[in-house]
């Protein structure tokens, strides 16, 4: 029973550089997993196959992707093959890596949870607000225009206005409002009041929020009986272990070793089964995970979510690829950032997990949790 969706080419690859992280966010558990760093030879082969599959966007993610000491080389490999590249970072390592990354990331995102240093640091589990501000300053000085990625929760929604007025708008940076989602007992939902606040806030210039995310949540998330998820159809998920993760990272029901055969693996009966089952597993009930519903909504014009999300996407593309590109032609700009005031002077920490100029391989020691059972497969 193959649908028209099963014949589509995936557009996005979520390429997990590592599950390691130099932060410990309370709404995320990825940093608790053991993980290697992806190998350049594997990446080269997989990028070639991803190109053959029709993928257009490579999202190098993690964990903290800048923990990979060759991240600039991996990005360059993707750019050489014509991919659009995206990368999200907490900013701890960006100032050290910025010059090498310059011009290699099409959509660069800096995570921010609050304009109040202590609140942001508490959310991230480590001191990093000062490095985030330094990252913005360095990026603008290099002619980059990073987006600010704000994961909105019931607890920090009241900080949206201040982030916008003191950091985003003065610097001409897009503020992406990313609604919190629930998975594996982490995260959670949003109250109707906060969703209404976010929806109204998104009408401002230099703000991006896919309003269909909120509609999906209001309707209870994905319904396995009538699924809206197209995670397998639209997205290829690759783990740091060089595995194809199905149907998505967060469900992780099956992991297939790639071993240099990603193209053939993608066209296998096993992946076809996952494609037909996307959104129909018991684990998919109530899901509203943004990183899979963004491409799902974008590539399903028969869905009302497609039309609801379209205006916000058009605004984002216009601001990012027209307004900001014209701004970049004017050259580097000085950042306009809030005064940190009484924020204590930091100890010299590299962001790699060691004081001073430690190597990227030296990581913060974090607890390792055993993976919970993900369910049964036929």
Q: Can you tell me about this structure?
A:
This protein has 378 residues and is α/β, with parallel strands linked by helices. The protein has a single domain (10-328), classed as TIM Barrel (Alpha-Beta Barrel), CATH 3.20.20.70. Helix content is 35%, strand content 13%. It has 13 helices and 12 strands. The protein has an 8-stranded parallel sheet with strand order 9-6-5-4-3-2-1-10, with helices on both faces. A two-stranded antiparallel sheet has the order 7-8. Helix 1 (40-53) runs parallel beside helix 2 (71-80) and helix 8 packs antiparallel against helix 13. The longest helix is centred in the C-terminal third of the chain and has 25 residues, at 304-328. The protein is globular, with a radius of gyration of 20 Å. The chain starts with 11 loop residues before the first strand and ends in a 50-residue tail after the last helix. Residues 1-6 and 353-378 have low confidence and may be disordered.
Structural class: alpha/beta
User: What is the level 1 CATH name?
Assistant: Alpha Beta
Portion of residues within helices: 25-40%
Mind telling me the C-alpha Rg? 20 Å
Spatial separation of the terminal alpha carbons: 17 Å
Q: Reading side by side through the largest sheet, how are the strands ordered?
A: 9-6-5-4-3-2-1-10
Question: What is the topological layout?
Answer:
Layout (H helix, E strand, L loop, with lengths): L11 E5 L23 H14 L3 E5 L9 H10 L3 E6 L4 H8 L5 E6 L4 H8 L4 H13 L5 E6 L7 H9 L6 E5 L2 E2 L2 E2 L4 H10 L5 E2 L2 H8 L12 H4 E4 L4 E4 L7 E4 L4 H5 L2 H9 L12 H9 L5 H25 L50
Helix pairs in contact: 1-2, 8-13
